[in-house]
Structure formats: C-alpha cells, structure tokens
Specification:
The complex is a heterodimer of chains A (about 300) and B (about 375). Chain A has about 300 residues and is α/β, with parallel strands linked by helices. Chain A is about 35% helix and about 25% strand. Chain A is globular and about 45 Å long. Chain B has 16 helices and four strands. In chain B, helix 2 packs antiparallel against helix 8, helix 12 (about 250-280) runs antiparallel to helix 15 (about 320-330) and helix 12 (about 250-280) runs parallel beside helix 16. The chains are: A alpha/beta (about 300), B mainly alpha (about 375). At the A-B interface, helix 5 and helix 6 of A face helix 1 and helix 10 of B.
C-alpha cells in the first residue's frame, strides 16, 4: 500500500485523522514474527474445536488457521460463536473438545504461554475509571512482566502512536467510547504480541475513528502480526482482512478470500444474508397467513 | 512477585481515589465507634440513674415506704396497673399490704413486685425496689436488734473493706475485641467483593485474565489489598475506641496483641470474601454470600465468652483473634496464644488462596 493510501486518499479516511496513525509511526512497534525462538508461520490454529456451556454447544467442530501477517475476519450473526472463538484463542476459556493452538502452544495445556503472545480487545471491556490511561497501560505492562523502563518506553510510544496525549492523563471514566477503544488497542499492543484477537473493536465508534482504527490494524498486519477480527460489518471485513470466515451456529459455513468476498458481496445479497443470519420470518406486527389471526386482512394489505 | 505488587499497588491506588470508600473506611470507625460507645453508655447510665416508674398498689398508707424511695422510684398512678405493666407504661407494679408498718414490726410483711422478665428497665426496677425495701427495713432491724441487746455490727463479725486501683477494661474490654473483628471483617469483605465480582461487572476481569500474570499472583495481590483494608479499618476502630474511652496508653505487648488479632481476623475475612467473590457474578451476589460469613464472625465473637475454656479455642480462626484482642485489652496477652492465632489464620489463608487461584480461570 502506498504512502498516499495510508494518508487517507484511497481509504476514505480524512487526511488529518489518517495522519494520526501514519504508517511511519507504526514502526515504533517491532515486528514480532519470532516467538520462543521459533519463526512463526501459523499464528492461530483450531482443529475440530468444540465448546459447550452446559447443554448449549456454542462451537461445533471449528477448524481454521490464521497465518502470520494475515488478518482474518470472523463474520456471523449474534450467537454464531465469534466471541467464544476469540475467548478460546485468548486462553480465557478452555475448549470442551478439539485442539486450539496459538503461536504453536496449546491453549488448554499451556495457557500462560498463549497469553504471552496474544493481545486481546474484547467487545464489552471496561476500564478502571479512577485510573488514567497511562496508569492503566503501565499496570498492564507490569502484569505482562515487562521491566519498568520498558513499560514506560512502550507506553509513551503507544500514547504517541495512537494520539492519546490529549486525554491519557485524565481518569478513564471520562473517556468517550472511541478513547476507550484506543486505550484497549494500546493495552493489547503493549507487550508487542504477534497475535491480535479483536472482538468488534470498532463497534460504536464514529466513522472517522473506526477508519483510523482499521488503518492502524492494517499496518500492524503488514508488520507481520496475525489478526483475528470478529465483526458484524461485511464492509469492514472486506476492507481490513485477507480472508473472511462466515460463522453460523458454531461452525464455519463458508470461507471466502477477501478479494473474492469484495467481488461477491455474499452478505449483502438478500439470499445469502438469509442463509447466514437465518430467516427472521414475518415482522412482529405482520400477520402470519398460516395462523389466520383475527386481524388477518387488516394488516399489510393496504396496497 | 512483581505482578503481586503491581496488582496490590494498583488496587490500593484505586481505593485511595475512591472518596466514598475513604469516607466509609476512615470516618466510620473514627466517628461511629466513639459515637456508638457514647450512645450505649449514655443509654445505660440514663437507665441506672433515672428513677424507676413503679405503680404502687395498696389500700393502706404507703408514705412510710415511699419516704425511702428518693431518686430510686417514681410512684406512678395508673387506672389499671397490670395493663400499664404489659404495655410498658410502668417498669414494675408493687403490691403493698394495707398494714405494712404493723406487719413489718411483726416481721411478717411481704410486698410483691411484678415486672417483665426480659425488660432491662424491669430488672433495674427490681434492684431499686430492693434498695428501697432495705432502707425501709433498716430502722426496724436496728430497733429489733437493740431490744435484744444487739447491734448491726454484731451481725457482721467479718467486714469487707473494698479498695480499688485504676485498671481493668470495663466497657472497652467488651467492645474493643468486637470492633476489631467486626471492622476487620467488614473492611476486608467489602473491598474483596469489589475487587473480584465488581471487576466482573465492570468488564475488566477478562482483561486481567488475558494477561500472562500467574493466577496466584493476581489473587495474592488482591488479597493483600483486602487484608490491608480490613486491618486498617480494625486498627482505626480500636484506636478510636481507646482514645474515646480515655483508657491508659497500652503497652507494646498489648499493641502487638491487638494488631495480631486485627490482622488475623481480617486475613481470614479477606481470603473468605475473595473466594466467595470469585464464585460470584456480581458484587451484589458476592455481598449476599458475604453476609453469612459476617454473621458467622459475629456469632463467634458473641459466643467467645462461652467458648473461652474450650481446648480447641486457640486453634479456631476468628474466635482466637477475638479472645486474643480481649486478652490484650485486659492487659494480659499470652504470646503463645498470639502465635497460634497467627499460624492458624495463616494456614486458612494459604489453603483458601490456593483454591481461589484455581477459581480465576473458571468459565
């Protein structure tokens, strides 16, 4: 991608905002394709992963892999298993069956090692409202085992890179949704992880900020990181990711290369949308012809 | 170990910036303890010093008897004394025979006092009526003795002379150990609920779990914060009570005894509440689970006097802390007891922290 594109002329991001995440500044974070002395080729690998919560089976034999330097979108309706997939990959929950490996480490057998190589942005993550952004970053830096000097250095770099200087010293309770998302992204990147697991990181953001976050993530992928991104937005999946995994009821329903996905907007097509998201049936106030309700003939026949 | 201090440091900083927690944590023990003590003492002294309201029932002249009631009894006239007693309008009903003086001269007089068994005012009225009857009887006794050539002195061949020196714990001896246990538990349990279940509610718990820090270090860091909060609260409560009661400055053995008792009680409270918090989904649920723990601690403290002689008492956490605090307040802390208290509490803490660390990754 050209420098011109990165400054917003091709991505639709306003020039001023695009400069915030200019690719040059992205170099502050060293590419990490080597973990535990091994050069990574596969970041995330799921093989027949099942996850049950009581009687409910949320993941049903999920199999896929995400290579280093690749961004893969998990797209699907609510309850399809996107968040659970990310939680399994982040070693936040153990698979009920099957094998999930991240950076070559099994999430069930060696969760500690897995956590060392993933950065996680969760959809409904909160913040410590009485701490400032910088204090939160330093706290997580210490929890990641970074030496104090390194924590300070990386915090300063991320604050600068994500343009958080204006608010990072204020209590996090005063942050807007966009500020919080930037803080979470900085927190996820703090220990320079080779794998990023993102659960709708742009949900609720205004279009400018969302575009900026998308662009920042794209630059991280170019650095060699592996990104697994759960999203509801087909357009976002096309824009940021290399491949799209369409999830339905805990299974991969279809795998589409990004370019092909762009050319064939499967989710935008009414027929495919029905296949992925399920047939919603008649609206709540629409009469069902099968039931023959007393209101039949009064609703929806005006034309 | 760095992660432990990181967690503890962050939690303490967070706590220090929580104005409501600070107000509750510092002002309550500092102000409420003396306030509560003052109210209880004022209530008790009012009852003792004010005259008991007694309905005197007699068809004769009772002025002779009531002449001795100055400051002790207030004779109340009510239309239905029994009903007034049941309704609590009088503390007692005193039935006096019509010819009290004559019967008293003969030595056969009997006055009947009726009061409510469970009413502290009734019990005090009994004491006061007994004093009035004794005052009334005394001249009659003296007269009877004199007629037999005796005097009051001859009835008491051995006299008891009382001399007092400063010391003893008084009300503080009862209240202070209770404050140490109650504040230690309350402080630790409230903070623990916020640091575990509260984090789950705020959506920061999974962020913490996603870090490579060991589960043990997360739990120990949080435990240290809760323990500190409980100990500080218990210490403030104890210090405030000591200052208020104008007790003599405690010596070092007493201070060590009190600190060991506060630290032991709050360590057990902290680890129990932390474990319960990790099992709960919300702070409200954690507080609901903490209530039986809290009541259990209160029950242990309430039953401490009865359990004092139990051979296993030094080994039972919370009970041993209460008794250690009591020993310290009474000025006779036993070092052996103190060590056993600390060791037994530490054992509970280690076992429950191990269990709590395993709960962190619970789905």
């Amino acid at each position: 991608m050209s420098r011109k594109a990165l400054h917003g002329r091709e991505t639709g991001v306003p020039k001023k905002r695009a400069a915030i995440f200019g690719v040059v500044s992205a170099r502050v974070l060293r590419p990490s394709r080597s973990v535990f002395g091994v050069v990574l080729t596969v970041g995330v690998q799921f093989a027949e992963v099942h996850k049950r919560y009581g009687a409910a089976e949320v993941l049903r034999g999920l199999t896929f892999q995400v290579r280093a330097g690749e961004a893969v979108a998990l797209v699907g309706p609510n309850g399809a298993g996107k968040t659970t997939t990310l939680r399994v990959a982040a070693a936040l929950t153990r698979p009920s069956a099957g094998s999930a490996r991240v950076c070559g480490r099994d999430v069930a057998a060696d969760p500690q090692a897995v956590r060392r190589c993933v950065g996680v942005v969760l959809e409904q993550a909160g913040v410590y409202g009485r701490l400032s952004g910088v204090e939160i970053l330093r706290y997580f830096g210490r929890l990641c085992g970074l030496p104090p000097g390194e924590v300070r250095r990386r915090t300063d770099q991320l604050v600068q890179w994500l343009r958080m200087e204006g608010f990072c010293d204020k209590p996090a309770s005063t942050y807007s949704r966009g500020m919080r998302q930037r803080l979470h992204l900085a927190r996820a990147l703090l220990h320079d992880p080779p794998v990023l697991l993102l659960d709708e990181p742009t949900a609720g953001l205004d279009e400018d900020t969302a575009a900026v976050v998308r662009q920042a993530l794209r630059s991280l992928v170019r650095e060699g990181r592996c990104v697994l991104w759960a999203t509801h937005s087909p357009a976002e999946a096309r824009q940021v990711c290399d491949r799209v995994l369409l999830l339905r009821q805990g299974k991969i329903w279809r795998e589409v290369p990004s370019a092909q996905f762009q050319g064939e907007p499967a989710l935008d097509h009414p027929e495919n949308r029905g296949a992925i998201f399920g047939d919603p049936g008649p609206g709540p106030f629409q009469a069902s012809s099968k039931e023959g309700s007393p209101d039949e003939g009064c609703v929806g026949r005006g034309g | 170990m760095r992660a432990v201090w990181a967690v503890a440091g962050k939690e303490i900083l967070d706590l220090a910036r929580d104005r409501r927690a600070l107000i509750l944590g510092f002002l309550l023990p500092v102000l409420a303890v003396p306030g509560l003590s003052a109210l209880v003492e004022a209530g008790a002294s009012r009852r003792v010093e004010s005259p008991a309201r007694v309905a005197v029932v007699s068809s004769g002249d009772v002025r002779g008897l009531l002449r001795h009631a100055g400051g002790l009894l207030e004779a109340v006239t009510v239309p239905d004394p029994e009903e007034a007693l049941r309704a609590g309008r009088v503390d007692a009903v005193l039935a006096v025979p019509a010819d009290l003086e004559a019967e008293a001269e003969r030595g056969t007089a009997e006055v009947v006092l009726r009061y409510r068994r469970g009413d502290p005012d009734g019990l005090l009225a009994r004491e006061k009526v007994a004093q009035v009857v004794a005052r009334y009887s005394l001249p009659l006794v003296d007269r009877a003795l004199r007629s037999r050539g005796l005097d009051r002195e001859s009835l008491t061949p051995v006299r008891l002379r009382e001399e007092t020196i400063p010391g003893g714990a008084g009300w503080t001896g009862l209240a202070l150990p209770l404050f140490v246990v109650v504040w230690g538990f309350a402080g630790a349990a409230l903070v623990a609920a916020d640091l575990t279940a509260g984090e789950k509610e705020r959506g920061t718990w999974d962020l913490l779990r996603s870090t490579p820090a060991s589960r043990g270090s997360l739990v120990v860091g949080k435990f240290l914060t809760c323990w500190m909060a409980g100990t500080v609260l218990a210490g403030l409560g104890a210090a405030s009570e000591l200052v208020f009661s104008a007790a003599s400055i405690p010596g070092w053995p007493q201070v060590f005894g009190l600190v060991a008792a506060a630290a032991s009680a709050s360590s057990v409270a902290a680890v129990c509440a932390l474990t319960v918090g990790l099992l709960s989904k919300s702070a409200r649920e954690a507080n609901q689970w903490a209530l039986p723990l809290y009541l259990g601690a209160l029950a242990t403290a309430a039953g401490a006097e009865a359990l004092r002689g139990w051979p296993a008492a030094p080994w039972v956490p919370v009970l041993n802390a209460f008794l250690l605090a009591q020993q310290a307040v009474e000025g006779k802390p036993q070092p052996g007891w103190g060590w056993i208290t600390v060791l037994s509490s530490a054992s509970v803490v280690v076992v429950l922290l191990w269990a709590a660390a395993r709960l962190v990754d619970r789905d």
